[in-house]
Amino acid sequence: MVDMLNAQDDLYHVNLQGLDKGETINSLTMIDVISRALNPYTQNDEFMKLAEQPEMRFVISNTTEAGIAFDPACKLTDTPASSYPGKLTQLLYHRFKTFNGDKSKGLIIFPCELIFLNGHKLKETIYQYIELWQLGDEFRAWFEEACGVYATLVDRIVPGFPRKDIAAIKEKIQYDDNLVVQAEIFHLWVIEAPQEVAEEFPADKAGLNVLFVPSEEPYHERKVTLLNGPHTVLSPVAYLSEVNIVRDACQHPIIGQYIHKVMFDELMETLNLPKNELKKFAEDVLERFNNPFVDHAVTSIMLNSFPKYQTRDLPGLKTYLKRKGELPKGLVLGLAAIITYYKGGTRADGTEIIPNDAPEIMQLLKDLWATGDTRKVAEGVLAAKDLIWGEHGDLNTVPGLTDMITCFLKSIQEKGMQETVKGIL
Q: Which tens digit of pLDDT belongs to each residue from 187-204?
């Protein structure tokens, strides 16, 4: 990526496509704000020299959910450390030494990885490296007092390189841009930071949807529940109904009703924000799902479906049960659809079903489905507390859940997915 950026003089285009209040938008903008790109694995000396720049102030990262992790094998003398938090700790320590602990030379750090309270997690990991590498109390105090690591939430669907449209884009700009990025119109960046940070980083003044808030938790919960949660359950339901694109699922006469039920009748009932605000957000999400420019394949969402359901949908299922005294059928059916998807085999149209998850989860589902008993399948999946459900424990203890999952599994096998969905609408 660095070599590709440098080959293009650090220039690339962003292609924004989608609907904004019902209006179709298709814009192409050159991004010219990158001064240089460095590869720390081949240019580590230059990378570390960044810490010597007095004017350096902000560090922004997106290393994916797996990126903020502690690797005890990393050493201070590595050039560089293999983990992102390790590299960042090396950079911070070099800056601390360069400026002799000057507290005015601290950094403001915005991690954008999709982890709840990502700033807290990154900060904890840096502390682990400070202890592992024995960097001393003075550096630890400088990091605590001079630097700020703030939790953030980013929200924008970015499909990436627009293969379908690249020929037309190159014709328009009259040269080859091999780093064009396609994204939707909607964007939101929530930063949990005090007002003085907002004043130093006035992104909202540039007309960007950047919010500085006392707590990102309600925004995180809203996004995970009303965007990621529906994504996770609609995808297997749609796929097993022979619908492959999120937009097509939303517009499907049966699957579309299912998505609406899950969002508005079930998940929305589990949140504590004002109903009008939640309704507006859910309507915006549906408009995003219906983006005519973005062919968002449901199979891309179904990677690691069980961990996703555990974090995105299971909390809502349990909250709904507690508040309403009954199980949310749409969310339960979504779990049954995931379990069915992991059976593999072929769809009615001949498409091979190829689930993808951790090997031990794949083996568990293979063994359970080999019994030929839907009850045993349901009980076995729900009992996998160590493998899947974590702190939620054995889900067979959730009143009525085992019976409902068993019923849905049997119905999907006998009647098919669409007929099963009809039964709960």
A: 999 999 999 999 999 998
